[in-house]
Design a protein that fits this description.
Two copies of one chain form a homodimer. By secondary structure, chain A is α/β, with parallel strands linked by helices. Chain A has helices spanning 2-31, 34-45, 53-69, 130-135, 138-141, 159-166, 168-171, 173-179, 219-231, 282-301, 323-334, 361-377, 414-417, 430-450; strands at 73-85, 91-96, 102-103, 106-108, 116-127, 145-148, 184-188, 213-217, 235-240, 243-257, 262-272, 308-315, 338-344, 352-358, 384-387, 403-409.
Chain lengths: 453, 453
């Protein structure tokens, strides 16, 4: 009798949770506004690099949007952000080869300095990656243009794994080439696509340098260059005027619903408002920002009153400095708040397949158990929980011992668009985008209702 | 000790299966050719309605493709297929309304007869669906043009559910309107998209009729028409010359790898080669046909020698007669083969999320148990098995008591394109398409290795 009563309580509760989660999903695809907000970000504002007037406009737009939506509080959290400018269109040109002269489709890599008006000219040498380059004697590299040509790995089924296997060429390749005396670096675009659109991204030289100009080149350009190198010596000319300006002002845009019972326990949902300076920053990461606002809206539409404080954070400067994430971390160190859960959406607006998660060792076992319970409740949606990296902006929160999660959307198309002129609004499907918000809202609901450990 | 040995056998076997399934997936995204074959079907041949020269060309292409690939046998299975022709571009025009005159974006529905050169003209009445129409007195319908305007349901998370809730208007609406004396029917396109592209599809009047002209109209046209009807009386004019011709010749294209141990046990993988006469039949169902060929190729590339016969069937005439599926059923009734498993891919070339499955009651429990075992082996891919409809072409095989399955891809984008000019090659992502083939190949491997009950 008691057992029966106990069971019926559990099942009653379970079905109430399932009903709420179903409602959050249905609300997202029927009443969600994330797609409309994304259209404004992409089409009325456009790409949004740190320090640009577009990022200021996006900051303004999302601040007043959350104000209008009537969240309990909305505020800006300021910080200084790196300010990089591409300058006029880059030139990367093969000036001497068995195949003649031809231009390569190129974009300067973010945070790098250009060559100045006269450009640089030198022989091109190809390497398959950093390991090969590091073993080469400096004498072979000095005065050369180093071409990193290891392609995006096709075999991993999650393309973020492929990205992780290749992106070191872009992030650290040019700096290593510079240390060994190279005069410029070319990097095959880190993309699953086989066209000739270059995909930019950050490249890091450290404070000291030495600095050289560095460019992403389109895959077809990379193939053409590799072919010319097979046939003989190749000389190339690079010219660009990209540069770092003094740090600019940046802002995290924060909106929250105050918790009724444990207002000092904070659940963060976030994405980043900045983007690279090509395309429209649609999947990376307009999607994550509008989904984060939508999570709060869905809970309100469902009539749910959270016990804990639910906070949407549109981080600034993820792409070329991660200063927004660091600013929020600095803020949390000064308050008495407990950052119990943070979910970042920065992997595109495609159909949600689950979440990555991580934490400090201290609570890993507890979080694993809790996620197994939630997996059962979420069974009909097929969401998976995979132990792994959460997100650049929330990573600094790790020392708070909270649960950190990253939305895990279908990854097959993401790196076709990522950091390129192709990352535009038309690549985002309304329902897929909204379902991502619903998946996040479901986790927020469960964490708010039951706590995380 | 014995237990340990037994366990290690189980785990050894399990890991061998997991290795093979991982290999099938990796081969699909690294060596798969389905995307190239689909490009030929879509771009060199184009849409492929039954009786059209394009379907004959596609039959030829895929027959010789499978011959060249070196399957153990490749043959054509002939049957008679309905032969419908759209004729010159349809006209559906509002000729009198408070909003003035305007054209509606329209496509005649498949298998319907046009109005002939003079067209028909009449007052438009809107209904929300068949139930409402069936309750209306015939006197209100007689001489009118009936406009079915129930929209595609947004709330279901699987859009095939939405489709099932709405498609009766297109399939059966015009026939019911005709029986009640209507002179033509307009049907709001059955689509998740909100643009003005009409989505055609089959409409069924039975042998006896009465027959009237019937058209799909774009969603924006439907909204405009509904708005005009709110404001007052609307008169429209329809003209089209679509017609049924005498039955034409059609062919299922079949290729197989002969089983080494149980050649009379047949595992079918299939899609349909025909498409509607707009767009390129890319997702519906070029995707399913090239995936079916790919399944056999992946098993061969993996070096797997099947015990049972694996048969790829490219069915003909799924869209407007399903005669290919019936022809194969008739063939199986005459052989001593056992049709143990059939998998159809006819839900688009998006990322695979699992399979629907069904069977006769007799073995339902056994199949459910077997699928639960497979679900564990396939755990890392997140594939789900959902009891439900398998596919139009394999459905006739049900009396053989085999397991019938349908590939279940991500459904969010499918009905944006379905049966319209938008179903073109560029909507298909190479990796998503190939992973669908890998998912099917994995099931085929498990069924071949262990049988299905």
């Amino acid at each position: 009798m008691l057992l029966t009563f106990f069971n019926s309580c559990i099942f009653g509760q379970l079905s109430e949770d399932k009903r709420m989660i179903r409602q959050l999903h249905e609300l997202s695809v029927t009443k969600g506004k994330a797609y409309d907000w994304l259209e404004f970000l992409c089409k009325d504002i456009g790409h949004r690099l740190s320090g640009s007037p577009q990022l200021a406009a996006a900051t303004n737009y999302t601040y007043y949007l959350m104000k209008e939506l009537g969240f309990d509080s909305v505020w800006l959290q300021s910080c200084k952000v790196p300010h990089w400018e591409r300058g006029p269109k880059e030139i990367v040109r093969v000036t001497g080869s068995v195949e003649g002269q031809f231009d390569l489709s190129a974009l300067a890599l973010g945070n790098t300095w250009g060559t100045g008006p006269n450009g640089v000219s030198g022989e091109v040498i190809a390497v398959y990656g950093l390991e090969q380059l590091s073993k080469m004697p400096d004498s072979l590299v000095k005065g050369k243009i180093v071409f990193f040509n290891r392609p995006f790995a096709e075999a991993p089924l999650n393309t973020f794994e492929s990205y992780g296997m290749t992106v070191d060429q872009r992030g650290g390749g040019p700096a290593l080439a510079a240390k060994k005396g190279a005069i410029a670096a070319l990097v095959r675009s880190v993309t699953s696509s086989n066209d000739d659109i270059p995909h930019t991204g950050g490249s890091w030289f450290g404070e000291e340098g030495p600095f050289i100009a560095a460019y992403a080149i389109g895959c077809q350009s990379a193939d053409r260059l590799a072919h010319a190198l097979k046939l003989g010596k190749v000389v190339a000319y690079c010219q660009s005027d990209s540069r770092m300006l003094p740090d600019a002002d940046g802002w995290n845009v924060i909106g929250e619903i105050r918790g009724s019972k444990y207002p000092e326990e904070i659940i963060v949902v976030g994405g980043h408002l900045d983007s690279w300076d090509v395309g429209e920053g649609a999947h990376d990461d307009g999607a994550g920002t509008v989904q984060s606002i939508e999570v709060l809206q869905l809970l309100r539409l469902a009539g749910y009153k959270p016990q804990r404080t639910i906070r949407a954070i549109l981080f600034t400067n993820e792409e070329n400095g991660a200063r927004g994430g660091k600013a929020y971390k600095t803020f949390t160190d000064k308050t008495n708040e407990k950052q119990i859960l943070a979910i970042e959406s920065d992997a595109g607006g495609h159909s949600p397949q689950g979440f990555t998660w991580e934490s400090t060792d201290k609570y890993e076992g507890k979080y694993r158990d809790r996620l197994m319970q939630w997996k059962n409740i979420l069974d009909e949606y097929g969401y998976r929980f995979i132990f792994g990296y959460s997100g650049v902006d929330i990573e600094p929160l790790k020392p708070h011992h909270g649960l950190l999660m990253g939305l895990l959307p279908d990854s097959q198309r993401y790196f076709d668009y990522h950091h390129s002129a192709k990352d535009t609004f038309d690549k985002v499907n309304r329902r897929e985008l909204e379902l991502g918000a619903a998946a996040m809202a479901s986790i927020v609901y469960l964490a708010d209702r039951y706590g995380i450990r």
